[in-house]
Amino acid sequence: MQEIILASASPRRKQLLEQVGLEFSCMTADVDEEAFYNLHPGDLVKKLAWQKAQAVAGRTEQNIIIAADTVVVLDDVIMGKPLDREDARQKLTLLSGREHQVMTGICVVNQQNESHSTEFEVTKVWFRHLSNGEIQGYLDCGEWVDKAGGYGIQGLGALLIEKIDGCYFNVVGLPLSKLYQLLYKQGVYLLGGEAPNGVQGWN
Ligand SMILES: Cc1cn([C@H]2C[C@H](O)[C@@H](COP(=O)(O)OP(=O)(O)OP(=O)(O)O)O2)c(=O)[nH]c1=O
């Protein structure tokens, strides 16, 4: 039977897929993310999602693979995960009082019919003006580790944010509604067999 594999080590992505009742297993996919930082952010996140899916496709057969990649974009400059606390402090200082974009690329590969779909989603995020003390306090909680831009909207990072425009789940690392549409195209019907708006199902 065809299985669904999440090509990710991210506990957030696993949790989000569980939220929509999908049965799946996880395999990790290591790719050199910074090698492509010269690309347009939308192309970058799609390319990285595709590469993560391919890294897992080399180790499994006949399955459906889901992969994603998330970056923060400020003034067209891509921010990945902070290297260390000082880097996180610099990132949060740059984001303070400003609007930025969170972009997530998603890729769904169907190994059985050798097809794939890749898309990306953008969410606008506005940070409050943060005092140096607030930034220090946030850094102390350690949440910045392993998160694009050095914050997590799903945790204490919520307090840094004034408002967002777009998909919340996209910021956490997996735009669920868009993913649902890609999965539908591959014959995975999370809401029954009726096609979502805008999607031409082929089954
Ligand atoms: C902006 C933001 C990012 N993030 C996370 C989502 C991603 O996990 C991470 C960006 O790193 P990614 O490289 O997209 O993913 P990852 O390394 O965590 O996991 P994998 O490659 O194995 O799938 O930042 C949050 O959890 N909350 C946020 O508010």
From TrEMBL:
The record marks R12, T70, Q154 as: Important for substrate specificity. CDD domains: Maf. One of its GO terms (biological process) is nucleotide metabolic process. It catalyses: dTTP + H2O = dTMP + diphosphate + H(+); UTP + H2O = UMP + diphosphate + H(+). It comes from the Bacteria. It is found in: Cytoplasm. The active site is at D69 (proton acceptor). Its cofactor is a divalent metal cation. InterPro entries: ITPase-like_fam (IPR029001), Maf-like (IPR003697). This is dTTP/UTP pyrophosphatase. It comes from Syntrophomonas zehnderi OL-4.
